[in-house]
Amino acid sequence: MVRVSAMEGSRLLVLTAFAIFFVEFGTLKSFGVLFNPMQDSLQCSTAQLGTVVGMTHSLGLILAPLTGNIARTIDSRLCVMVGGGLLFVGFLATAFVNNIYQLAITLSLTGFGLSLAYIPQLVLLLVAFPERFSLMFGLAGMGGSLGMMVCPPIVDLLTMTYGWRGAMLIMAAASFNVTAFGAMQRLPSSGYEKLKKEDIQSLSDDRPRDIRSKLSAFASALVQWLSMHLCIEHPKVLLHLTVWPLLGAIFAAWMVFLVPHAIARGIPSVEAAFLSTIGGIGHLLSRAIHPFILDRKLMSAFWMFVILNLVNTVSFFLDYAAADNYLALMLLASVNGAAEGIVNWIIPSVSKELYEESGYVMDICIIGNCLFGAGEILGGFLAGALYDMTQSYSASFFSLGFMAAVTTTMCLIDRLASKCFNETN
Which residues form the Major facilitator superfamily (MFS) profile domain (predicted)? Predict the structure, then answer.
């Protein structure tokens, strides 16, 4: 009975994570459809709006050291429920903003809610499925791909019917479902309780007597609790961590500017919004296939990551040649969607392959997500600023290809450095 109950709880955990990712990534991708109406209404530059919109998801990841460790030490179910409530309030308030500064405040609140709802899913899946994490994380991630495929056309229809503010109100109502899904999650007890005990013990043991030593011990415990000690104790992971912000910059810029970039080339708004659906189909198919490839060990996560980054690089460089050819843009959107759907999702598995022996995989993932979020802000600002300077998205997409090439190079150097380090030891 205990075994059956645990298995049902694990299945429910994957299903609820699937639903949460559907809502979160679907609403995030829909900002590409809302971008031009919001810019006209708020009277702001492309760089400003791109930075603020990118900040929604990126802030949720930047706060990963805080929310991830709150989930590990307190209650992840409560984190997800509160996160769903903040998503609802943030989207609701966004429908009534009048300038870019108010939008920055409301989307910051949304980003905090996203962090509370998303990061605990990563923590729970790492703990619940240590041996088959790639498979279960990939299956749950299909919810995000499905959301990115389904939500933008629906939001485009809502925008044409009710305006972008009315569409935002409906998105707020949809996001509140995250609270219900969080309440349904049944947590695996053994590993999770072990994490709670270890983290609480790290903050309470070895308390010195004098005030100076107490402050020093508290600072040390806080750094460890936020997973920041990893950079000091294992400096060799710093090279690996540089890959994460580059991935974040590419992902955010592609997701936010895919639709505006097509409209700028003369593609009608309905057809441009459909490119998001095409990208979402590629996203969904790739996420449906790759977990089984990794689970059956037909290819390692590392080499899958490298190959798909190379594919991403070539497709971004070919964007300029596609011009206003809609079929070519559809093909590139599907390729980018498929590549982005995997590389951003298997980077935790790559970390697990390279650094599993160190015992800091979860800390690497938490810090990595923080850096991924910082990269998203950089990507949104850079792509928007290049458009403001050139009045063309071609330079923006070329820069994404360059960053994808650098990411591939850094990952190969990291693999070589890790191999040399292990052989030396």
Answer: 12-419
Put residue 207 in one of left, alpha, beta given phi > 0 → left and psi -120 to 50 → alpha: beta
Q: What tokens were used for 320?
A: 């300029």
**Pick from 272, 260, 289, 199: which is nearest to 383 by CA?**
260
CA distances to 67, 182, 247, 383 from 90, in Å: 18, 18, 26, 25
**271 and 329 Cβ atoms separated by less than 8 Å:** no
- Confidence tier at 315 by pLDDT (50, 70, 90): very high
The per-residue pLDDT for range 318-347, each reduced to its tens digit, is 988 888 888 999 999 999 988 987 888 888
Contacts with 333 (C-beta within 8 Å, 6 or more apart), sequence order: 258, 275, 276, 278, 279, 282
Has this prediction a pTM greater than 0.85?
Answer: no
Distance CA 140, CA 136 (A): 6
Place of tokens 């990534």: 25
How far apart CA 254 and CA 339 sit, in angstroms, is 12
Cβ partners under 8 Å of residue 39, min gap 6: 46, 49
pLDDT at 90 over 90: yes
Picking from 384, 410, 80, 35, the residue whose alpha carbon sits closest to that of residue 241 is: 410
Q: CA-CA distances (angstroms) from residue 211 to 118, 206, 219?
A: 38, 14, 12
Statement: residue 88 has pLDDT above 90:
yes
Place of tokens 């160190």: 358
Closest among 245, 230, 251 to 369, alpha carbons compared: 245
CB atoms within 10 A of CB 249: 28
